[in-house]
């Protein structure tokens, strides 16, 4: 994505598509995704980013934001602090083709995950799969 992301805009504003209200019989998760699309992306918490990314919603805008959070928190994890496995899992489990659209975020994520230690074996496997699936040159 060549332009910086306007964190004051919602996904609806960024992608120019307004979703209708969710159907009456929607699950709480579906209703939550619809609501999160209407909030400014700069106000989304890591767990909310993980939810949207896990549903493949707003990836061109949210992946770079999520990678930035993961990058910023990686030194604390390496030093023995807590790391947000939910956000990491959501990000590294996206389809390989997605990363071709945001190569800078892919490179930064690759650098980030190379520094992480003591990941759960499940997340570690997903990280390894992510690394092996990256397109050439990233």
SSE pattern, N- to C-terminal:
HHHHHHHH
Largest sheet: none
- What are the low-pLDDT stretches, counting only 5+ consecutive residues below 50? none
Strand content: under 5%
How widely separated are the two ends? Answer: 15 Å
For the CA atoms, what is the radius of gyration? 15 Å
User: What is the share of helical residues?
Assistant: 55-70%
Summary tags:
mainly alpha
Task: Walk me through this protein's architecture.
- 26% of the residues are buried.
- By secondary structure, the protein is mainly α.
- It is 59% helix and 0% strand.
How would you summarize the topology of this molecule?
Blueprint: H1 11-15, H2 28-37, H3 46-54, H4 59-78, H5 85-92, H6 96-101, H7 103-113, H8 121-133
Helix pairs in contact: 3-4, 3-5, 4-7, 5-8
């Amino acid at each position: 994505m060549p332009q910086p992301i306007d964190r004051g805009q919602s996904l609806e504003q960024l992608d120019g598509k307004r979703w209708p209200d969710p159907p009456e019989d929607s699950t709480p998760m579906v209703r939550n995704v619809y609501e999160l699309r209407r909030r400014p992306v700069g106000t989304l918490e890591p767990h909310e980013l993980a939810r949207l990314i896990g549903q493949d919603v707003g990836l061109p805008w949210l992946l770079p934001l999520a990678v930035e959070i993961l990058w910023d928190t990686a030194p604390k994890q390496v030093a023995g602090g807590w790391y947000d496995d939910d956000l990491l899992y959501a990000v590294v489990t996206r389809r390989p083709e997605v990363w071709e659209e945001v190569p800078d975020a892919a490179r930064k994520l690759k650098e980030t995950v190379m520094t992480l230690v003591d990941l759960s074996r499940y997340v570690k496997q997903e990280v390894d799969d992510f690394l092996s699936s990256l397109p050439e040159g990233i």
